[in-house]
Amino acid sequence: MLKRLAITTQPLPLSLKLTNVKTYGIIAAFVVLSVLTPWAFHQFPTAGATYLPMHFFIFVAALTCGWQAGAIVGLLTPFASYLVSGMPVMTVLPQIAVEVTVYGLLAGLLRQKFNLRVVWSLLGAMVGGRLALLIAVAIVQAITGNVYSPLGPSATPFSAVWNTVAQAWPGMLIQLILIPVAFWVVSRLSAKKQTE
């Protein structure tokens, strides 16, 4: 069963060392992509919350560059986005920062340390990130007495997180299809180049 989940023939396409200056350039590029893409989506009502453009490049950073890069891109992206566009709003910024940092951390760990296929790494990170979001929302509620959600003051941490999942299923589905396909195409092209 574990052999089906694991992929032992394809290492990470790019392994970054945090002592290398180039690493920070690559991380900065992923942060810029993770900020500009949501900014474009936010020009349309609810498009950001539905299609999750911020998550896309955080996952790609983690899957291509490892868990350290994924976690750093995940942590920096929401704050950089807030400085550039005011989104996500301050009330939800801390909990979104926790969620996407865990996405980057887990996607990279599952791919790099456990050698899982891209799709399983994504699924594991999505589940872990949503659980981290639930914990973050519960902590914010314990501190402030409020749950910040479109559902209003009657929302519980669980209903707020479930509402985000229900709204975001198209974006999650797109990520689960596009990211593994992109990795497959890149691996086929690189294998073809090596045989030439």
Write the layout of secondary structure elements.
Blueprint: H1 2-5, H2 21-41, H3 47-51, H4 53-65, H5 67-85, H6 93-112, H7 118-144, H8 157-195
Summarize the structure.
The chain is mostly helical. The chain has helices at residues 2-5, 21-41, 47-51, 53-65, 67-85, 93-112, 118-144, 157-195.
Tell me what you see in this structure:
This protein has 196 residues and is mostly helical. It has one domain: Orthogonal Bundle (Arp2/3 complex 21 kDa subunit ARPC3). The protein has helices at 2-5, 21-41, 47-51, 53-65, 67-85, 93-112, 118-144, 157-195. Helix 2 (21-41) crosses helix 5 and helix 5 packs antiparallel against helix 6 (93-112). The protein is globular, with a radius of gyration of 17 Å. The termini are far apart. Mean pLDDT is 88; it is low at 1-11.
What pattern of helices and strands is seen along the backbone? HHHHHHHH
- What percentage of residues falls in helices of 4 or more residues? over 70%
Number of domains: 1
Radius of gyration, CA atoms, in whole angstroms? 17 Å
How many H/I helical runs?
Answer: 8
Q: What overall geometry do the principal axes of the alpha carbons give?
A: globular
Unreliable runs, pLDDT <50, ≥5 residues? 1-11
Q: How confident overall, as mean pLDDT?
A: 88
For the biggest sheet, the summary is: none
Distance between the termini: 35 Å
What do we call the CATH topology?
Answer: Arp2/3 complex 21 kDa subunit ARPC3
Structural class: mainly alpha
Q: Would you count the extended β strands for me?
A: 0
Question: Briefly, what CATH class?
Answer: Mainly Alpha
Strand content: under 5%
What oligomeric arrangement do these chains adopt?
Answer: single chain
CATH architecture: Orthogonal Bundle
